[in-house]
Amino acid sequence: MKLAHFSDIHITHFPLSGKPALKRLAAVASYSIAGRGNHFRGSDARIARLLEDVDAQGVDHALCTGDLTGVSTEAEFSEVAGLFGPRLAQPARYTVIPGNHDRYVRGADGLFEKHFGKLSEGGRFPFVKHLSDRVSVVAIDVARPTSLIDSSGLCGAKQREALLGILTDASLKDRFVVMALHYGLLRAEGQRDARPHGLRDDVEVMELIDRADVSLDLVLHGHMHRPYVVKTKRRTAICVGSATDLHVKQGCGYHVYEIDPAAHRVRIERRVWSAGPGRYEADAASALNRELVTR
Predict the structure, then answer these.
(1) What residue ranges define each of the domains in the chain, with the CATH number in brackets?
(2) In b/e form, how buried is each residue of 193-216, taking b as 16+ CB within 10 angstroms?
């Protein structure tokens, strides 16, 4: 089967467009002075082209691993939901989970579920979605509202316990299993992420997924805007990067995975934004294009 994976699309309004919040006020500096506004200038048009390109690839399913918005305002959620359009009513074809920018402040509680709940099993995490007779995705929510100087995530003991129950269930043993989350477990060079930016219980999650009795082929995530492939002790993790950040050196884009569940193999195709024609195209020269054996 073919699975598309994109992340960190960040529909971006000027940060003061939502209800006042100290963290949103601080985002003004990032947007105006640090250049974030330029990174995502015109992101709405790229999101529209992205979704069109995903559909044009004839994929069986598409997965978005979060950060649909910039500062999780109602206006941002409404706009990006409008770009998804009829896809919002197609949970058999699309799965979307939240990122930290979609849980940016406590005042944003419920906004992700309001607009994207149908594509995330109503926002009840963790959940399992069977994409075909041999391929399943297990999704967890590790995003949360944090303080002004913190953008870390947390899986939490309760969700980890439920995740372990899912991944050790005999029903997944002979399936190709993908785990989706927003945060990375490791950075590109194989080290842990910085505490204010990464998953607080990353070690516990890695110990869980690296167990011999766990059925798991791929870990797919975003959060870091540069794409890469890395391994934990037993598992392959793929960061797809940002699909719309114009400052990504390798080009902002997304992946199409061609999965052979019987052989536990996956082939990665990288597709990137081409500003000239204004569309996403295959990047034949990408070092990410490869075939992996996942178990």
Answers:
(1) 2-293 (3.60.21.10)
(2) beeebbbbbbeebbebbeeeebbb
- Residues near 54 by Cβ (< 8 Å), separated by ≥ 6? 4, 6, 62, 254
Segment 163-206, tens digit of pLDDT: 999 999 999 999 999 999 999 999 999 999 999 999 999 999 99
Q: What single letter denotes the amino acid at residue 241?
A: G
Q: What is the dihedral of CA 119, 120, 121, 124, to 10 degrees?
A: -160
What are the tens digits of pLDDT across the range 104-143?
Answer: 988 889 999 999 999 999 999 999 999 999 999 999 999 9
- C-alpha to C-alpha distance for 139 and 244, rounded to whole angstroms: 23
> CB–CB of 214/173 below 8 Å?
no
Token match 């797919």: residue?
220
Helix, strand, coil percentages, rounded to 5, for the chain:
30, 25, 45
Q: Look at residue 4 in the predicted model and tell me its pLDDT.
A: 99
CB 100 within 8 A of CB 131: no
143, 103 contact by CB (below 8 A) = yes
Q: Which two tokens stand for residue 169?
A: 């269930």
